[in-house]
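Protocol step 4 of 5: obtain the predicted structure for the target chain.
Materials: sequence only (see below). No template structures provided, no constraints applied. The aim of this step is simply to have a reference model before the mutagenesis design in step 5. Sequence pasted as it appears in the construct record:
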Amino acid sequence: MSVLVLVGAVTGGVLLQRTSQMSDELLDRVAPARVEAYRLQSALLNQETGLRGYIATSDEQFLQPYTEGKRTEQGSAARIRKLTDGHQQPAVDLAAIEQAAGAWRRTYAEPAIGQVRAGHRQAANAGMGRGKADFDHLRSLFSAQNRHLTDLRDHDHAQLKHVRTLRNWVLGGLVAVLLLTCLVLAVLLRLLVTRPLQILRTTARAVAAGDFDRHIVPQGPADLRALATDVESMREQIVTELQAARSRHKTLVRQAEELDAQALELRRSNAELEQFAYVASHDLQEPLRKVASFCQLLDKRYGDKLDERGKQYIDFAVDGAKRMQVLINDLLTFSRVGRIGDAHIALDLAEPLDKALVNLTTAAEESGARVTRPEALPQITGDPTLLTMLWQNLIGNAIKFRHPDRAPDIRITCAPQPDGDGGSDTGMWLLTVTDNGIGIPEEFAEKVFVIFQRLHGRDAYTGTGIGLALCKKIVEYHGGKIWIDTDHTDGTRFCFTLRATPVKDSAPAPGTTLEGVPA
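Step 4 output (structure tokens):
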């Protein structure tokens, strides 16, 4: 089939090219050459007519056709010569016409024009008979040229018709051979390919329907036998994988039952831990309150009998009991984040910020703190109590760890968090709390988020060191993260992210400055 197609393509291409060449010869060369021959002859006739008119009237205007005819003659002769390049007879005819026309102008036309201009028109009229004889010779050459060009056209037309006929017969024969070859191939395909493929398809469908034990027997040509062998190998692999999958399914069912049992045990254990934390906090606080109360009573009743060191010992005991009580409450609060309440609601992030600022009103007034916040914050889904604790701890730390030489200046910002390509389609908001306080050294940027980690002594700053650890747990519970911007050196800048509510995103507006007491 490939050889047949190649031979047909080459033969058809050659014949089509030959037909195209003959058509181009007729349309682009012979036909334009005949037109130019008529234009050449018309130019010479115009020269003869203009010359006779000039001899008869002595009017120079009659020479215009003569002059234009010469220019047209030259252009047409050049085009005829180019169009008939390769044909001998048209070149001979053109040379004869040009030679005769030149002789007519040289021996008759130009001398007659000179005689008229010299005032000898009678002499010019006397030579008109000889000029007419010369031009009649030109007319005979015109007839010969037209006849030869017509013969050339008829010859090329006959060749074109012959080539077209040959082309049609050859192409028809190729089509007939192609159809016969296709018929033979169809029979061979039916015997050698279609029937084995049908058997293979039937067997494969049976296997696909669930009859995995049905073997596929290779039949037909080598390629089909190889295909059948591969399908049989695939069936065997499927059977093996199916057996393994059934075994794994049994294992997974057993593991799922074990996981369900473990989940039930874990829920029971978590419930017991919650109850234990609650009971332990109350049971531990009661002895601590008793120790602190009796130490205070001891100081009140026997204080005048104790020396300075004895009073100091009592103060140490009371302070230790109170600090232990604070530690227990902080531990209870830390352990309950994300496990007690679980009030996930859609809220404006400005609401917990307002509550936190109200709770910090006294500390803000005493320190002269200046808080700058956005006019609008985004909508998020979260626990309002935990978010209030988050704002209160971050702003409270900024007030507590203020610089001794200046009032606290706290700035809160909010903006969409850009993604990896610089866009803002992550659905997260980046919030920052920046102060002008004493700052946190870079080497402690991770340590401060560890529970009970303190950078200062209790005599310098109060607290248990659980605030930032609580902030980290709250932010991570809401799907974000928190860190310290170590590039900010004039104070401390805490950065954290929160996911916005998908239904309603609120972009932050320009900030508002609050002096002392928050709005």
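Step 4 remarks: The chain has three domains: 2-181, 220-336, 343-515. The longest strand covers residues 409-416.
Proceed to step 5.
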